[in-house]
């Protein structure tokens, strides 16, 4: 096709950095016959025509008449720059799927280039199967074009509406980690992932190249990354496209890959080079896996990867009005932006569209001609139809042990000590034991620090790199491990997302102050789930479970930088259809919540629980009842039975619960006739009106617990204004007085940290006295005594470095 053939034109003094000219490649050979070459090039032209049509056309989809302004979209939205290279790679991999019967999916890192993925889904027939109105004919093609980036249609990324996609790519940086997440425990899968060179400048992407050190060639599948060097971002060069060839090769050798280069713009030679290179990489993957599986030795190979250097906006006009287009940043988004106001540019667009020769590619009815249709794989071998990319289709439920078997015995509330998270660790060990093919635990470097080391009794940490003798002394490393640790919250979160979106189950544990690293990743995943819930063809996937520990109230030793419980504010912003927040007060409640979350689907479950030893309050049956309700009155801690309380003391979170209970004890000891109701909240969204969240209470239910008119002293784990935000529509919301973290603290004792934020027992009891009318005067002496105790406790901490023993050894006295 004449318009695709470009003359060699260097963009840099170093010819090796040019995206133009005859193909230059590491792997040699010309595996395509002349007929195969002709057909593949024609199929590629068909995908490019569809991609460009999506950007511009709402009518006249096959240009059966001259193009008119009114047949184009009034708002031009979308991205062209990466489409040709992505589609080029996709189509060549289709040949290998057919030749070797590969099980493969495609991840588009530059997800803005969705036209490349959408066009191939349409050509493969998958799109029309899922959306029958986007049929394989002229009328269906018109609807297919019009919907793209159009009100009432679909977005311009590889959104959940895109068949075969598990990765939107709207926020860049996660394609590699998502790809590896799909490969773990899918031994026959090859995940082909296109990595944008702009995307490669992000921190998460740069770190995720190390995922190959965690890929076991015996039990896992493979990832084939294709770094797409098209040279430009929105209007800047990309770093990796402007460093020397030798430096780029050294970078990926240093990451542990064998890089294969395919560079140029001449379609005929580029087709042959890409065909030879991809085939070489597939055969190398199979050789690595066959050898490991034959010998049983899970060594770490140098996995292949490809560097594809092609022009930005490949196949666009090189210049328009003497301005560079193809091969320059102007091709990144909409290449020609003024077709509605510039008739000559409308003609340029029409000529460009016609250069793909759609009349040779589609028949009179608008269908892809039969000889090209045969190039696509069949059935589930189509990357757009692979059930792994609709992970709920292949998901098997967890075999769940009985969480009651891990229970802590509680004979008397507030008298037994146990580790909350360590108890959960015992349960996770048993979950792991019976789900060794579908469940993994992820974390940055903290599984043992977070007291989940019981898991190591059945599954070690994955490690494919070198071993030292000392590793046998508590290193807990193994090639066939099930715990995934790397000191990058981004990477482990990406692994988990890819793992569950492709049909498996998992849990990520992280220190509370640093879970913020994945704020935007959580945000993107929550949005993905919300859209999936609107699509009946998307099958249910396992929930994303986040265990947040090493909490603010026990970061007194690490200081101010480690004190931040604000992730809950981020979570609360998301749609109530997809997020859940649980703050279990003790180990048995944590077990009940953990069991529920691991079996749930289509949510992000955030569980907040401290890893230190804490008082235990509820036996197993009481814990199940309490967690099932999500909020409840603890009668054993209350003395208002049959009468109106003077005050409601409420808590949410493990440390705040203990301090609230201690405050209740102080009030009842110092003011014997006071009537106190104690309320504990496990499920944070119970506070929201039932009209706003599926878990929310009605106003009647809310008032039955918190009363219509009594003061409520609410001790909260996180920032206090979140409770006010969740309850602002309640009729008695002005009675709710919240205490929580207020950005106060440094190197403190636990009680001193609480005192600085007014969440300690003394502050809470004083606040209650101040808000109960009948004790404002008569309780003055008690108030003064409590203030003196608080001052004494703080002085003790400053003198001895620890809290007084009556504080650290406190138990529920009644």
Low-confidence parts lasting 5 or more residues at pLDDT below 50? 1-13
- Characterize the biggest β-sheet: 6 strands, mixed
- Give the class from helix and strand content and strand pairing: alpha/beta
Q: In DSSP terms, counting alpha (H) and pi (I) runs of 4 or more, how many helices?
A: 25
Hey, roughly how much beta strand do the residues contain? 5-15%
Q: How many strands in all?
A: 23
Q: Order of strands across the widest beta sheet?
A: 1-5-6-4-3-2
Mean pLDDT score: 96
Task: Assign a percent range to the helix content.
Answer: 25-40%
End-to-end separation in angstroms reads 88 Å
Task: Tell me the Rg in angstroms.
Answer: 31 Å
Shape: elongated
Task: Give a nutshell description of this structure.
This protein has 814 residues and is of the alpha/beta class. The protein is 35% helix and 13% strand. Strand 14, helix 15 (519-532) and strand 15 form a beta-alpha-beta unit.
Search tags:
single chain, alpha/beta, six-stranded mixed beta sheet, 814 residues, six-stranded parallel beta sheet
């Amino acid at each position: 096709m004449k318009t695709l053939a470009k003359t060699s034109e260097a963009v840099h003094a170093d010819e090796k950095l040019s995206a133009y000219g005859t193909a230059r490649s590491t792997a040699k050979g010309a595996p395509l016959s002349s007929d195969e070459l002709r057909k593949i090039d024609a199929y590629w032209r068909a995908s490019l025509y569809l991609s460009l049509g999506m950007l511009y056309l709402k009518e006249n989809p096959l240009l059966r008449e001259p193009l008119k302004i009114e047949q184009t979209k009034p708002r031009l939205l979308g991205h062209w720059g990466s489409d040709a290279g992505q589609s080029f790679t996709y189509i060549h991999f289709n040949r290998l799927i057919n030749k070797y019967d590969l099980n493969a999916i495609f991840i588009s890192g530059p997800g803005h280039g969705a036209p490349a993925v959408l066009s191939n889904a349409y050509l493969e027939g998958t799109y029309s199967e899922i959306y029958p109105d986007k049929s394989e004919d002229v009328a269906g093609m018109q609807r297919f074009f019009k919907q793209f980036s159009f009100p009432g249609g679909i977005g311009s990324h590889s959104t959940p509406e895109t068949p075969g996609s598990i990765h939107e790519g709207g926020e860049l940086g996660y394609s590699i980690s998502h790809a590896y997440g799909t490969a773990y425990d899918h031994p026959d899968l090859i995940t082909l992932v296109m990595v944008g060179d702009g995307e490669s400048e992000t921190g998460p992407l740069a770190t995720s190249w190390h995922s190959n050190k965690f890929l076991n060639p015996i039990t896992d599948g493979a990832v084939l990354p294709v770094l797409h060097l098209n040279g430009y971002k929105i209007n800047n060069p990309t770093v990796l496209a402007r460093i020397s060839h030798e430096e780029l090769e050294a970078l990926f050798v240093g990451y542990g890959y064998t890089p294969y280069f395919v560079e140029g713009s001449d379609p005929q030679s580029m087709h042959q080079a890409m065909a030879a290179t991809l085939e070489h990489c597939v055969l190398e993957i199979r050789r690595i896996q066959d050898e490991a599986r034959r010998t049983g030795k899970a060594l770490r190979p140098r996995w292949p990867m490809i560097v594809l250097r092609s022009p930005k906006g490949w196949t666009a006009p090189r210049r328009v009005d003497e301005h560079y287009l193809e091969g320059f940043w102007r091709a990144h988004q909409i290449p020609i932006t003024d077709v509605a106001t510039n008739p000559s540019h409308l003609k340029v667009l029409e000529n460009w569209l016609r250069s793909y020769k759609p009349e040779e590619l589609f028949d009179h009815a608008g269908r892809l001609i039969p000889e090209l249709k045969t190039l696509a794989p069949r059935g589930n071998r189509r990357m757009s139809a692979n059930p792994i990319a609709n992970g709920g289709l292949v998901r098997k439920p967890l075999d769940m042990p009985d969480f009651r078997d891990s229970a802590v015995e509680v004979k008397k509330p507030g008298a037994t000590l146990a580790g909350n998270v360590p108890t959960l660790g015992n349960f996770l060990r048993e979950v792991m034991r019976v789900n060794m093919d579908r469940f993994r635990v992820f974390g940055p470097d903290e599984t043992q620090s977070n007291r989940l080391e019981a898991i190591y009794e059945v599954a070690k940490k994955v490690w494919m790199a070198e071993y030292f003798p000392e590793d046998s002394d508590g290193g807990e490393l193994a090639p066939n491990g099930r715990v995934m640790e790397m000191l990058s919250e981004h990477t482990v979160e990406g692994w988990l997302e890819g793992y569950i979106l492709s049909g498996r189950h998992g849990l990520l544990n992280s220190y509370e102050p640093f879970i913020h690293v994945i704020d935007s990743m959580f945000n993107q995943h929550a949005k993905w789930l919300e859209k999936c819930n609107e699509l009946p063809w998307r099958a249910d996937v396992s929930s994303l479970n986040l265990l947040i520990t090493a909490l603010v109230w026990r970061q007194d030793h690490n200081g101010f930088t480690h004190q931040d419980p604000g992730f809950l504010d981020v979570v609360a912003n998301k749609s109530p259809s997809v997020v859940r927040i649980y703050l279990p007060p003790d180990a048995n409640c944590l077990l009940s919540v953990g069991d529920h979350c691991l079996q749930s689907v289509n949510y992000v479950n955030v569980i907040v629980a401290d890893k230190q030893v804490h008082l235990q309050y509820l036996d197993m049956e009481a814990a199940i009842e309490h967690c099932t309700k999500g909020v409840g009155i603890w009668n054993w801690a209350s003395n208002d039975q049959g009468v109106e309380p003077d005050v409601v003391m409420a808590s949410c979170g493990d440390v705040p619960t203990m301090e609230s209970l201690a405050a209740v004890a102080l009030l009842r000891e110092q003011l014997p006739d006071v009537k106190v109701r104690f309320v504990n909240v496990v499920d944070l969204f119970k506070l929201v009106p039932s009209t706003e969240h599926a878990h929310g209470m009605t106003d009647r239910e809310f008032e039955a617990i918190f009363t219509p008119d009594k003061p409520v002293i609410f001790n909260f784990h996180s920032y206090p204004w979140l409770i006010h935000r969740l309850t602002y529509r309640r009729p008695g919301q002005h009675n709710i007085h919240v205490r929580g973290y207020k950005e106060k603290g440094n190197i403190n004792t636990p009680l001193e940290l609480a005192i600085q934020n007014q969440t300690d027992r003394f502050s809470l009891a004083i606040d209650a006295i101040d808000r109960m009318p009948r004790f404002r005067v008569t309780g003055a002496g008690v108030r003064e005594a409590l203030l003196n105790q608080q001052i004494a406790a703080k002085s003790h901490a400053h003198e001895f470095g620890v809290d007084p023993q009556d504080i650290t050894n406190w138990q529920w006295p009644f």
